[in-house]
Amino acid sequence: MLRRLLGAVKRPCILCDQNQTEACGVCAPCQKDLPWLARGCPRCAMPWPSHKGLYNCFNQPPRFNLCQTAFAYDFPIKQLILEFKDQGNLAAGHALTLCLAQCIVRDAGPGIMPDLLIPVPSTWRKRRQRGYNPAALIAKDLARALNRPWSPKFLKTHPTRQDRKHQSRQQRLNAATNPFYLTRTKAPCQIAIIDDVVTSMATANHVADRLQQAGFSHISLWALARSLPPGTNNGANTIDD
Ligand SMILES: [Zn+2]
Ligand SMILES: [Zn+2]
């Protein structure tokens, strides 16, 4: 489906430079070598073998309902994401986003597609450094690939401490406990938070808290990769599984 939506375009593989026509921009042999995230808990995306042991989410479930990432945050995904975020390699971000879109389409069930995609905003400092917000580029590409709406303005961060002098005490207290706020409260009911990498989940939990406070009950987290404790991505599946 994704291939039909995007059209097959011949271009160099982002990893080996060979001409290829995969929709995601990574040739089939290179795809097989990528650290696709093994199937795991739909809530926290931890691969099942590890979820049964130390790394489960039973005691502290995430504040969102579903989590999906395409990859484990390992070589060469880690390097590609860092190039995307900090060295302007937008082609890498685009390719990995299309890999994520393929995973989402592969696993989509009835009612699972969100009504709106919202990227986690960058801090003002990072945005000025990079000139773009990586999560917003991911959200834009995902929205196009999946034919869903997205909004770069729905979620924002409170101003940094230096910029807070004109805020009320309550506004400052809110920003101290959760750096995010919503610019709208009326919106479609199912939302996907878009980020580049899932690490501690603290950021996504903050965003999900804000969404829940505004009355949104079905919240997904979609990201390119998930960082994992060493040795927990054994038996990773591929895009075709
Ligand atoms: Zn390749
Ligand atoms: Zn879990």
Q: Can you put this structure into words, describing what you see?
A:
With 241 residues, the protein is α/β, with parallel strands linked by helices. It has a single domain (38-226), classed as Rossmann fold. Helix content is 35%, strand content 16%. The chain contains nine helices and eight strands. The strands form three sheets. A four-stranded parallel beta sheet has the order 3-8-7-4. A two-stranded antiparallel ribbon has the order 1-2. The protein has a two-stranded antiparallel sheet with strand order 5-6. Helix 9 links the parallel strand 7 (190-198) and strand 8 (218-226). Helix 4 (77-86) crosses helix 5 and helix 5 (90-107) packs across helix 7 (134-146). The longest helix is centred in the middle third of the chain and has 18 residues, at 90-107. The two termini are 16 Å apart. The structure holds zinc ion (ZN) (2 copies). One zinc ion is lined by residues 13, 15-16, 18, 26-27, 29-30.
Number of strands: 8
Order of SSEs, N→C? HEEHHEHHEHHEHEEHE
Shape assignment? globular
Mean pLDDT: 86
Low-confidence stretches: none
Largest sheet: 4 strands, parallel
Oligomer: single chain
Helix content: 25-40%
The CATH architecture category equals 3-Layer(aba) Sandwich
Count of spatially separate domains? 1
- What do we call the CATH topology? Rossmann fold
Structure annotation, total helices: 9
Strand content: 15-25%
